Amino acid sequence: MSTVHAIRFHQTGGPEVLSWDSVEVGDPGPGEVRVRHTAVGLNYIDTYHRSGLYPVTLPSGLGLEAAGVIEAVGEGVGGLAPGDRVAYGTGPLGAYAEARVMTPETLLRLPDAIDDRTAAAMMLQGLTVQYLIRRLFRVEPGMTVLFHAAAGGVGLIACQWLKHLGATVIGTVGSPEKAELARAHGCDHTILYREEDFVARVKEITDGKGVPVVYDGVGKDVFDGSLDCLQRLGMMATYGNASGPVPDISPLILNTKGSLFLTRPKLMDYAATRAELVAMADDVFGVVASGAVRIAVNQTYALKDAAQAHRDLEGRKTTGSTVLLP
Description:
Helix content is 30%, strand content 27%. By secondary structure, it is an alpha/beta fold. Strands 3, 5, 6, 7, 8, 15 and 16 form a seven-stranded mixed sheet that branches. Strands 11-10-9-12-13-14 form a six-stranded parallel sheet, with helices on both faces. A three-stranded antiparallel sheet has the order 2-1-4, with no helix packed on it.
């Protein structure tokens, strides 16, 4: 048994509820491994768990994504050995820790071409982009798509990957600096959604046709307008709510706006089986290792300073991906 530190929260609320606690980590039991984390990913879903928007049992750890090294392997675990580099992006909750014992179902062995910080920054976000653009709605060459929050961690990966697929990318951003960043990562058209009528701009860019798919991780502030950006039979994928939950909607609205499709997906359902997860991760590793997608780790914080990282994330002060260092 050894003592390590981990970020925990004993009540829901703002970043101030996060505490740097001492926790005991034992040897792995049958079917378990012990992982020493070298880098931990920061994601917007972490703020939903912390705030109580997505309920968890308290007290709780935090974080779904990390990279590290296998320290010990329990009885009955095959395919992994001490010293192996691994990463995960689909939990379980508790990645904000120096080390942990976990089952290996969500662990993926890292290719040599991908370093630990890159891995910690790309797993959850990269897997999210993979299911959004390759499975939920399979984007084909020549398509024009609308991606909200194009300068965020998911957005920068998506812009590059969509460009690699031969799509035209329209991205919304919150500032001129973020617009420049999105364009540098493959976004063809940027819209300052707080200052411009993004529906009018999308219609202008598409000669009035609209787009076949909208990917929305912003939520409340852009939801209604996003439906108006869609072509007949278009798909609205609202996968996050950085600006707050979307309003209730009558299914009849989808009918009147062109027999639209609306989905509220989550990564864990698309990566529910080991086979699905491995296939998705192989796709992500492939585009990153090839250089088609570059992971922008634009901020790093000490893991013990996770509260400040949350303040900056929610204050729209971050771009690209953020990594917490144990």
